Amino acid sequence: MQPVVISAMSRKGGAGKTTLVRAMASAFVFNKKRVLLIDADPNRALATWAERAGKRGTSSPLLSITETIKMDELTGIVDETFEKESADFILIDTPGVGGGWADTIAMLSDLLVTPLILTRTDLEKSMETVTWYDRLRERVSDPSQLPPHAVVITRFVVKSGKSVEPVSLGQQELLSEIRSLMKPVPYPMRERLAYQDMDNEGLLGARAAQLKADDNPLIRGRARRYDDALHEAIVVTKAILSRMAAAPASTTKAGG
Ligand SMILES: Nc1ncnc2c1ncn2[C@@H]1O[C@H](COP(=O)(O)OP(=O)(O)OP(=O)(O)O)[C@@H](O)[C@H]1O
Ligand SMILES: [Mg+2]
Predict the structure, then answer these.
(1) Directed axis angle between helix 45-56 and helix 17-30, to 10°?
(2) Is the CB–ligand 1 distance for residue 195 below 6 Å?
(3) Confidence (pLDDT) at 213
(4) Which superfamily does 4-246 belong to?
(5) Is the minimum distance from the CB of 155 to ligand 1 under 6 angstroms?
(6) Which one in 59, 105, 193, 206 has a CA-CA gap of 20 to 30 Å to 230?
(7) CB of 114 closer than 6 angstroms to any ligand 1 atom
């Protein structure tokens, strides 16, 4: 099976790209998939995260990381991974700015994901990403080669544990607007401490397993919130992937 290339893109800094990539990596590894992370952001947030996880024992033999901000190099890495079929998923994290590199990454991806926080500013900034994508569609010779684009609402705050209603009327309005403008995937990522803490603590499933193995029952009890986050990451990742199945099949990818 050829790897599936998924790239996190947003022209809004701090929108949650790196967090989304870590969450997806956690979901894939939990499902026994081999994941290659490519950090294409000079800030190296994803690369340093993976290194930290390795040191803390919360990475996985299924997870590998490489980094580059050079597009010819990145294309080479993707090509090689296709040739060797050495990963099931390639997840690319990108910087929160626009640039020529975005077109290159889009054309070698099978799927683009854009995280979106429910605020007016984030909505307007994300429209830039949507506009860039629409323009790209006009510029490429064969628009069917363009990967589908999935928008994921993130840092979603709900009224109570089980509710999927946003907290305020203002959020409800923004949500309706976003739904009609960008058709986000139906499951949001909630605002969760586990997503923040995973920056320090590695893969969600590996961290949960580590906590569950602790002698102290109070520490074992903390595994729950990583399990909850992992469960959500799996549901959201599945919803993201289903956007690919819905799109017209594209056949010639980099190295494919
Ligand atoms: N669902 C969430 N719940 C809680 N915190 C979140 C969530 N998503 C993102 N964050 C937090 O928001 C901050 C920004 O997220 P992140 O670094 O993923 O954004 P980014 O788009 O990669 O930023 P940049 O453009 O700088 O690379 C981080 O502190 C992260 O922990
Ligand atoms: Mg980032």
Answers:
(1) 40
(2) yes
(3) 97
(4) P-loop containing nucleotide triphosphate hydrolases (3.40.50.300)
(5) yes
(6) 105
(7) no
Q: Global pTM? A: 0.94
- Phi-psi label, residue 180: left if phi above 0, alpha if psi -120 to 50, beta otherwise: alpha
Domain boundaries, the chain: 4-246
Q: Give 100-136 pLDDT, tens digit per residue.
A: 899 999 999 999 999 999 999 999 988 899 899 989 9
Closest ligand 1 atom to 43 CA: 27
